[in-house]
Amino acid sequence: MRKFTPLALRLCTAHRSAFSVRTITSTQSKALVSTRDDIEYCRRLVHKHDYETYLSSLFSPRYAREALWGLRALNIELLTIPTHTRTPSAISMRYAFWHNTIMGLYTQPQTQNLPPVAR
Residue 67 and residue 52: Cα distance in Å, rounded? Predict the structure, then answer.
């Protein structure tokens, strides 16, 4: 398991105040439904990068298992950003993309152009 890089830690603390609890209406929740392909993508990502969590998730109920795979897949996506890019500006742009994507789910939940982990 990898730890957060100093850059990721700085981004998390800088944007901590931006995260707040918001309620989602029923029309918004219908737009946030994941497809089987999205869940399968998250399952494969967790299976590949965090096999212990994948095995332990098999003992949980299906609805909880799929939610766990989604959260772990997002965590894996964030932790692998420094390995996919080399320059600090590109790393910052990827973290900003994920920040804006997650915050956008609460304001305008449109899942057409989102990566599978965010749906």
Answer: 16
Look up tokens 């449109």; give the residue: 110
Residue 23, classed as helix, strand or coil, is coil
Coil, helix or strand at residue 87? coil
For residues 64 and 36, give the distance between their C-alpha atoms in angstroms, rounded to a whole number: 15
* Phi-psi region at 117: left, alpha or beta (left = phi > 0; alpha = psi -120 to 50): alpha
pTM score of the predicted model: 0.68
Gap between the Cα atoms of 47 and 115, Å rounded: 18
Q: Which two tokens stand for residue 47?
A: 């299976």
pLDDT for 53-93, tens place per residue?
999 999 999 889 999 999 999 999 999 999 988 899 999 99
| Alpha-carbon gap, residue 92 to 47, rounded angstroms | 27
d(CA 84, CA 94) in angstroms, rounded, equals: 10
